[in-house]
Amino acid sequence: MGQEQRLAFLAADGVDDWRVAYCGPITRFATDSVPAGTVFATAVAALDVLTEHPPLIDVRPECVIVRIVRDLIDLDDGAADRARAVSAVARTHGLTPRPHRVQDVQVAIATSRPIDEVVPFWRAVLGYDDHVGDDLVDPRGRGPSVWFQPLDPDKPLRHAMHLDLAVPRELAPARLAAALETGGRLAFDREAPQYWTCADAAGNKVDLVTWPDLPVPEDAPASLEILKVARGGPAEAGADSSTGESDGATAPPEAAESAPASPTDAALAPRTPPLLAAGPAELERGEAMFMAFREASDLDDWPVVFWGPTAWFDTGSLARSAALAAELAALDGADRLHLDVRADGLAVRLARDFAELVETDLDLARRISEVAATFGARSDPSKVQTVQVAIASKAEAAVRPFWRELFAYAEHGDEDLVDLDGRGPSLWFQELPPEKPLRHAFHADVSVPRAIGRARVDAALRAGGRIAAGAEHHGWWTLADPAGNKVDVAIWADRDGPR
C-alpha cells in the first residue's frame, strides 16, 4: 500500500460511510437483530466485485461492522469501488451507517534489539501471520495487529509496550478531552492532529491516532485548539455540539431518525456514570455458566477462552460463511450471537462475554454444532483464541477511568473494561502490591484451547522465548521474548482433560 492509495480512497466519491484505521477502510451499520445482520452479510457476500477481495464482516446484535481489507497495508486501487458496493447494499436494506462509531486497536512492542530477533517469538506465541514490513496480523482478522517499534540502543527502555488507538477524525477531540479530565496527561502533541501520545496516572502510554483517516492540511489546528473545541468551544460544521462527534451518516433523514439506538452508541457519548457491561449479579450468574461450560463433556467444538465459549467452523468461502451465519441466526436463543464472517470460515461466540450466558446457551451450543455439521462446515477449535491487554499499576494510581474514557469501553466488574462490539481487545487492570516494583506495565494475555496450549508455548520457546515464571501449574505459562516483554499463554479457562 502506497500513501497514494490511502489518500485516493479518502478523496473518492461515495465513501462517506467509511473511515480509515489501522485495519483499513471500516464502517458500522446499525441493525435491529442478529438475523437482520446476517441477511445483510449474505447480500454483501454475493457481490461479484468482492470475489477477489472478500471483506471481513462482524455481525452483532445491534450492528454489522465491515472491513474492506485485513490491514491498512493491504489497501489497493479497487477499495473505493468495493466500499461503494457495500454501502449500496446497506441502503437497499434500509441500514443507517454509523462510521463515527468505529475504532481499531494495535499493540506496539518497542525493542532496542534487532527486530528480527523479537518477531519470531510473537509470531509463534500469538499464532499470527507475517505481514508487510515488521507487522504481525491475526490470520482470521479478529485480534489486534502487532507493530514492532525499533529503539535507539542508547535510549532507556521504560515501557516496552504501548497501545495505539485509531479513531475516526471527528472522535479524537472528545476522546482526548475525556481522557485528560480523568487525570491523564498529554505526553507528546507535536504531531497533532495526526496523533497525540497520552499517559495515564501511572505513566502507561497510548497513542490516539487519526492520521489514517484524513490527510492533515498545513493549517491544521494545534492540539490545544482542538481541546478547546472539545471542551465547549465552537464545533466544526456537521458535528454534534454536545459530544464533539459527527454522525457521518449518508442515509436519508428518515432512516437516521428510525435507526435504533444501541448500547455501543451510548458508550461513545460522554456519560455519567460510566456504562456498565456487567455488575455483581451478572458476574455471579456468568461465573456459574462459565463453570457449566467447562464441565460439559459433549461440547468439543466449544473451547472456553477468557470471554466465554467460542467455536470456529471451516466453510471455504465468504458466501458459505454468511449462509451458515444466517442458519444459526434463525435458531431460538440466537439473539445474542457474535458472528465473524470470513472467507475461510465462521467464528461464533454465544454472547459478548460469559456474564451474558444463560442456561439455555448449553443447548444452543449443541444445536449450533449440529447445524454446522449438517451444513458441511467442519469445526476447528485450534483456530479459537482471545487476546487481552493487561495493564499493571499500584492501587493509588487509579488508572482505569483514563482507559475507559479514551477507549469508550464499558466496565465489566471491578477489574476489566470491554468493547461492547466485541472487536477490540479487553483491558484487564492488574493491581500490584505496594512492595512489588513496577517493571513492565503492559503485558499481553492470549487465551487458547487447552489442546494447543503446550504446542503454542513450545513454538514460542523455539523462536527464542523463555519461561519467565516457572512451569505451567495454575493454568498458564508466563513467557518472555528476547527483549524481556512478557505474555501469558492461558489454558485455565478451557475444560480439563484431552480435547
Structure description:
The protein has 499 residues and is an alpha+beta fold. Among the domains are: 3-99, Transcriptional coactivator/pterin dehydratase (Gyrase A, domain 2, 2-Layer Sandwich), CATH 3.30.1360; 104-253, 2,3-Dihydroxybiphenyl 1,2-Dioxygenase, domain 1, CATH 3.10.180.10. The chain is built from 13 helices and 29 strands. The strands form five sheets. Strands 1, 2, 3, 4, 5, 17, 18, 19, 20 and 21 form a ten-stranded antiparallel β-sheet that branches. A nine-stranded mixed β-sheet has the order 16-23-24-25-22-26-29-28-27. A hairpin with a 5-residue loop joins strand 28 (476-480) and strand 29 (486-490). The longest helix is centred in the middle third of the chain and has 16 residues, at 280-295. The protein is globular and about 55 Å long.
Task: Please outline what is shown here.
This protein has about 500 residues and is of the alpha+beta class.
